[in-house]
Design brief:
Elements (H helix, E strand, L loop, with lengths): L1 H23 L10 H7 L20 E2 L14 E6 L5 H5 L1 H11 L4 E7 L6 H10 L5 E4 L4 H6 L3 E2 L1 E6 L2 E6 L5 E3 L2 E2 L7 H10 L14 E2 L11
Helix pairs in contact: 1-2
Length: 227
Amino acid sequence: MPTLRRIAFALLSIGPSIFVASCGDGGAAASPPAAESASALRGLCDPADWDLEDAPFRPRPTGLAGQTVRAEEPGAIATVLVFLDTECPVANAMAPELERLRARFAPEGIAFRHVYPDRTLTVEAIREHARDYALDAVAVRDPGHVWVERFGATISPEAAVIVDGDVVYRGRVDDRAVALGVRRPGPGRRDLELALESILAGRAPDPARTPAVGCRLADLPAQGARD
């Protein structure tokens, strides 16, 4: 117990100075013993990185190498998040379309991220899924459902398009899936593509919401596709 008290006292003693040093001037004034901790805290100084405002103890979204990933790509015109489940047949059938959209719009300044909310998925399972379905977008793990809740996703596949912090489009990629197990031969309307074309033309996507059809995301209550 004395050892635990000493550790707690040490943390309380250096904590405020670390935070002030890292937030006040970018960490330049941090003392050498505190430098490493100051670097770790620096991300908390930028509100754009506060993905856990109302859930500070959940794991934040990370890339497959464990790095922190922002929801929005800095400098991008828009960022597309597509929420996926590796076992969802609707999402897997959509993989060629997702890659076609990425290949078309990435050179225009639109970033793409594939978000995997299933907390049981390992990094290798996600990498294998990306290899099997030739998906080249940045893969992000969201086991704490931080982005799921922040952007209102419930279905795999479901897209959320972010511009300057706002979700300007959320819903299906296209309308080829009518219901689970019911598909059209091809899409009648490519909703995500039309939304991205509108953004590049300086217009707001219309409609801004469409019903996503697919599999319920892991760990969410089971129910039908959401409007």
